[in-house]
Amino acid sequence: MASMAAAFASTAPAAHGHRHGLRPHPPSLSLRTHFSPPSAGRRGGGSGLRVRSGLIEPDGGRLAQLVVEEPLRRARTRESLTLPRVKLSRIDLEWVHVLSEGWASPLRGFMRESEFLQTLHFNALRLADGAVVNMSVPIVLAVDDADRHMIGESSKVALFDANDNPTAILSNIEIYKHPKEERIARTWGTTAPGLPYVEEAITNAGNWLIGGDLEVLEPIKYEDGLDRFRLSPANLREEFTRRNADAVFAFQLRNPVHNGHALLMTDTRRRLLEMGYKNPILLLHPLGGFTKADDVPLSWRMKQHEKVLEDGVLDPETTVVSIFPSPMHYAGPTEVQWHAKARINAGANFYIVGRDPAGMGHPVEKRDLYDADHGKKVLSMAPGLERLNILPFKVAAYDKTQGKMAFFDPSRPQDFLFISGTKMRTLAKNKESPPDGFMCPGGWKVLVDYYDSLAPADNGKVPEAVPA
Amino acid sequence: MASMAAAFASTAPAAHGHRHGLRPHPPSLSLRTHFSPPSAGRRGGGSGLRVRSGLIEPDGGRLAQLVVEEPLRRARTRESLTLPRVKLSRIDLEWVHVLSEGWASPLRGFMRESEFLQTLHFNALRLADGAVVNMSVPIVLAVDDADRHMIGESSKVALFDANDNPTAILSNIEIYKHPKEERIARTWGTTAPGLPYVEEAITNAGNWLIGGDLEVLEPIKYEDGLDRFRLSPANLREEFTRRNADAVFAFQLRNPVHNGHALLMTDTRRRLLEMGYKNPILLLHPLGGFTKADDVPLSWRMKQHEKVLEDGVLDPETTVVSIFPSPMHYAGPTEVQWHAKARINAGANFYIVGRDPAGMGHPVEKRDLYDADHGKKVLSMAPGLERLNILPFKVAAYDKTQGKMAFFDPSRPQDFLFISGTKMRTLAKNKESPPDGFMCPGGWKVLVDYYDSLAPADNGKVPEAVPA
């Protein structure tokens, strides 16, 4: 993965002198107007007029970094062996990872009830100083009746991973009821059976939630060959600073990149340059945690992204590819806020939002679960995200007259071909080629190889990916 | 209803000179601390330290008052006859009433999509100036496909009541999808069948919502003998000012008042006096809109409240009894915010919140729908309600040693008798008496008469009221 490695070859923490004295950002209010986000007229308060220098501040002013420092590590590990033990699921561990690096700043551990309730009802947390930060998905740890009994009156527990290694300590714990139905209804706007995260992490989880302050014994690693792409918010901030970025625009994805995506990202950089930024950097940020069975797995997506950079579709000089460790909820307008908020903590001040972000088909009815426009509308109005510039996705399609992906021109619809996820999947499965210019050949080959690698099920069907 | 009439005998609008120069309120932060609301440590921002004079300001600074003034009434009525017509259900009309008098200030009509989405996701609206007001239940008007077709490109519609009288004009309309499942899930935290408001007003409602600016042709009246008790927020503010109130504490109820409630209200006044207020006024504010079939009907509740005042359980001099025109959602922590917010608009700066406010049994499972403590917790953290002092309900029970209702003393639990709603109901149905001192005899007789008036169903069962 030469290109990607090059893109962040020198990000070892503290390996570089930070260059200070970045150009002040242009006033962000004018940016919002230029991009005409849906909220342009609603923000008010004037805070957008403040001219900032350096990267956008993390929520709460400081990145939560919860990995125990070396001098204390051995003592904490010893202590963990003496405490009541809670076993972490794969998704629990992903949340430990997310919390440990400060993606959810200012959260410093699994939510206590007051944070859980604010998340469910308001998608935001009020801090002690009165400031409001966005927080739309519950980051909670479930325990069952037996765990609760075993924990007893202890004020601390140790969290153990699937291999029974001590991973973290949770202190000043609070145990409270896990209102599953209400959590699901308020997070997803439905309680229909078949929501992937719910089936994986909620339905069979315990009836209690345990919140507290988290100390993680060692940086979380997965040993899957991809750990070097898992840059923390602090790593990313160092990288953006090293590159002298004066704007960072984040693109969340969980699907293969086609040339329509690439066009959008390239065009966004062009527009940021036009606005007066000197060095806008793209954070191409595939989601690395839990995804549903029919999504393309992370390792294949990373191969595909590598090819996209190698083939020169995106410029490695102005692109950082890294993995976002969060699990996926598929909770549409609620989840897109989390995706955006976490990227603020990584230093992004622009966030690209597409049609139906974090959406999926309704698990029971024949329709999409969410209105395709609600995601960007909700994002543009969300409390705690006022500092972030929301960039609505322009629709790209295959322009038959140019033989390449281009922004859709409604004055000549007959010239455009919309290649749906289903179409793309069918082509890749059948080892057919998409129209020239839809995706770089190297990237397409990865997709074909992925479907080739799947052992067909008895009925000849293979899992379906939805690369929209 | 002599006592109640006396309580607001002279509230005809503009009949009195307002007395200005009310004592400034004591700093509200100290009040919060004194009462130890759950949020005492979380508010921050210092706004609670501001010393205010006069009644609390309405949300958005000004009461929305949407009834057309006399000189324009005839012209608007004529215009309404020329517009596409939308028929109002009983609950729709109750919302027209609520909106027309400014209970939902600063809303000036049925919600457009941006307000609807903010309500569902954030329980709050951001205003043009950046200020945030609470808004937790959607105030929306549904129309069906045929209505939508009939409205066509018109920018206005006329709203007609059940008797085909023109009631209001909705202007600058916006028609958008009615995502029923999502609305229900996010408002109630469940989609279980059997939610009373859902069955009455959503399940069979149209698939579109229509928002816009409301002009109501005449004040809404129900001609049920109770209109004189339906004071608008403006009327109530006049009454509180006339009485020289320096604190107004609101008590929402939809059930008969027993002596435990009365004790709580009397005790609240005593504590407010201790804090330095000179004339705290109680707003005893029964909900008058849609309620579920097994609640005691409004007319019987008003008779019961009258007896409570007549019997001297509450002091008419310091109590205003009035009807709150909103329909009931039974949406627990979400709805209690609406109940509180609407009372700010009526001038209340203290709000008493009990166990499980606006709660009910789960319609399908054998449990309460909401955690009994979530209501007061959510209320204490709700965006836009920072100005309101939340007074958590103290638990009252029948003290056998004193032969009266008293605050529960956990050091001698054996002395207390908890008289459940079911117990109270059974006694009233069987024309038995509760323990002396549970409810004033006149009030109890009203309840017995109510159950007596019900024609027993074939199986001998009568509808069950839940007076908790």
Automatic annotation (TrEMBL), chains A, B:
UniProt name for this protein: sulfate adenylyltransferase
First-tier enzyme category under EC: transferase
Disordered: annotated segments: 1-55
InterPro entries: ATP-Sase_PUA-like_dom (IPR025980), PUA-like_sf (IPR015947), Rossmann-like_a/b/a_fold (IPR014729), Sulfurylase_cat_dom (IPR024951), Sulphate_adenylyltransferase (IPR002650)
Organism (species): Rhodamnia argentea
Family: Belongs to the sulfate adenylyltransferase family.
Subcellular location, record wording: Plastid, Chloroplast
Assembly: Homotetramer.
